[in-house]
## 1
Amino acid sequence: MMSRVFVVLCSAAVLVGAASAADKYSGPRPPKPDLPYLLHADNLAPTEPSIAKEETRKDALAYVIPGATSAARTPLSEPIFLVQVEKLAPQALGIYRMEVRNGNREVIIPQKKVKNPPKPIPLKITKLDDRLYRVEVDQPLENGEYTLSPEGSNDAFSFQIY
């Protein structure tokens, strides 16, 4: 009787091990850590990294990125990103739609309470591997300029939906 229980337990352990091995991520991997990459089928395109310049304006803060458009582009209205993390916390990422003004991209955050202030667009974060994460936009986005930015940081990873 004991040997049958042992065989059943060993078989169950082998099945669990095989199932977890089958779940291993086998797709493309970002070549640089802490830089989100747009996923296009089996290809990765880096987002445009920069530091958003903070400007104080009347009753608002503006975060400005030089240039009217990002070199990182995607046709997907619900982009998917892969990021290999070292220092970056994927759960802290948010996407903001940028407005193009005076040849720059900017998002304005009001300091006073206003109706419909800019809020980060919801994201779905999935851990694929030890330090590899899949970041997905949770709703369709319109064509335009966007940036991924960690909460509390001026780091920006820009891209354009066309």
Note: The radius of gyration is 21 Å.
## 2
Amino acid sequence: MSRTDVPRTIIRNCRLVSPGVDEIGAAIVIDGKHIADVVTNGAKIPGAENNFDASGLIAMPGFLDRHTHGAGGYDTTDADPAGIEVIAKRKLMEGVTSFLPTTLTLPEPGLAAAMENVARFSRRNSTGAKIPGVHL
């Protein structure tokens, strides 16, 4: 077990694309929720409790969408509080791990309601892309 008491996971045989890196046959070592190491093709890969063969797949960092009005049929400024959760889940499906919900030009009460929906989601978000801030 890893030091975080979460089983170690190895993603093997992936094409790893990251700034300055394009490596076929790489492995990614994950301890808990964090990448502990990247192993290039041909190097010794450590043991792990969980192994995932990513042959034919590409691993790359998640994207940051810094200007998005919505997704999944919802807009950031919709009155429906469930909309932000739908947007966050849809963004994650697109490879976006963080996004800035972007508002429309609205009177102050509409903007305040949108910010409350974003804040409520951010306080309880356990699934979906993260929201580090808003584009107002």
Note: The helical segments are 82-93, 108-124.
## 3
Amino acid sequence: MPGCYLRIAGTEFDPDSFLATATLTATRVWHVGHPLAPSGPRASRFREWAGFTCDVSDADGNLERQVDDAIAYLTQHHDSLLLLNADTTIDDRRLDFGFDSRLDDVAVQGEWLPVDFLRLAADLGIGVALSLYPACSDDT
């Protein structure tokens, strides 16, 4: 899932109640006991966590722009995100950055997150996940 999204979840968490009082707009909400998928093999397995996700950045594959968008998002929704720290039913608070590996052959792909972003996320109790996706060439 390239781009950046905020994921909030917990085994005892009530996403509907939280979202009713927050400035956040969820793009997906799920509840304990609901099927993992509407059909297929995962439809017979059920969710053990409730939660929601919010789109933070649609900068597909561009980590630097996603970080800039995340700083703006965390700043804009600071008060609602602070409420997450007070909610003891939340087990997972994270920003997930999906970005592409480089097409050229490199031995190591290193990425850097700026201190101002890390400080802001940490002050809000939000972790950071980096999801590296395989690059696709134009002919695949």
Note: The first helix runs from residue 15 to 21.
## 4
Amino acid sequence: MGTRARLVVYAPGKPIASRAAQDAFREMDLLDAVLSDYRVDSEVARLRAHAASDAFAEPAPISTDMLHTLVWSLSIARVTHGAFDPTIAPLTQLWRQARREGAAPSGPAFDEARSRVGYGHLILDANARTLAFAVRGMALDFGAVGKGLAADRAISSLRNAGLASCMIEFGGEIVAGDPPPDAPPDAPPLARGWTIALPRGETSVLANAALATSGDAEQVIELDGVRYAHILDPRTGSPVRGPIEASVLAPLGALADPLASAVCVLGPEGLRRVQGWSGWAACLIMPDGQVRTIGNWPKQLDLDREEDHASPAAR
């Protein structure tokens, strides 16, 4: 998925840790082969070719992993009213080109790309496990959810191997399993976990939860002297004005990852829209420097992985 992943695992010995880590990375590779838009042989690439063909409106078979990812992504898209949208790829490609060329896209090119974006144009048949497109030339982009899904899968693999004390850092996303076994035995529950850095120099203790951060701290688009975040608003087709940064603590990487992007797009409205959800917290740093928080930020999260929070990519 175009970035690096690092696992930290506690195990009885190095051979056990090595085998479990290799299995976890293998699970991530399997998902990468489905969701990555950096690979010409991925399932995303195959569906992009189908959508560009004359048969775009005909159902194309999809894998179980693609089905689960789409069902999950569409649920997040509906909750965020389109601030997260897995069909944003045409606009992503357009603005990547604009960044390379140092000039904003032309009006006709922008309008054409925007016309091919909209999760409502996907025709998903979960029973038949097929996908068709209502608009020719659509394309899928799971950049705002794929890392979270893959990190969840890695943690699930390590748990299945009996190594529940583990953590993964994947392109800035962090998903933690059980606390390290060397935590002080007399420490209170809220002090047992993986110590992680948060925005503004804060720290939190993370266990059985995920942290995702989105914004323009590292990736920006500067056009005509204006600084934009690399995050696009799928509803308008334009980049989010920076500087901005959102961090989300949630039960799963598959939830924290897309919500962090959506909160950047929606701003304080995004915090209000999902504030009724249980087991998550967020911090938003606005372009004017104001800081908004919601939930138990930045307290430790140690959450049971209930059925309604089950990762769609876990096996």
Note: The first strand starts at residue 5 and ends at 9.
